[in-house]
Amino acid sequence: MARRYKQYAAETGISYEYFFAGTHRVIRPEGQGPGSDYEFVVVPGAAPPFTLRVFVSDSALAAWHGAQGRDLSPSEVYAAVKMRLFQAFDESPSLRDDCLSLLVDGSNIEALLEPLDL
Length: 118
Hints:
Layout: E1 6-9, E2 15-28, E3 33-44, E4 50-57, H1 58-68, H2 74-91, E5 102-104, H3 109-113
Parallel strand pairs: 4-5
Antiparallel strand pairs: 1-2, 2-3, 3-4
């Protein structure tokens, strides 16, 4: 199946191409507990591609529900993931080193979704 790459020009000056590769239920051993890894294949500039994962903890979704009184829809969860991905593109010039450390958790889910006015 052919993948459609999307482009993102980061504040770091790097132009990224990326595509969504899938999601997997996981339990992160770093103490983050259960959740889902959203995998993206990322090509930074002319460098070789690599896989980048954004982890959404179940506790983050529970915190959102507690604060807002409703669950996030699957598309809203994906929006939070994309906002975290873009934040990483803008802030880190060496994402290959951070490929497992991108998180959507209770500490940032509200801030990630705030620009979307949900």
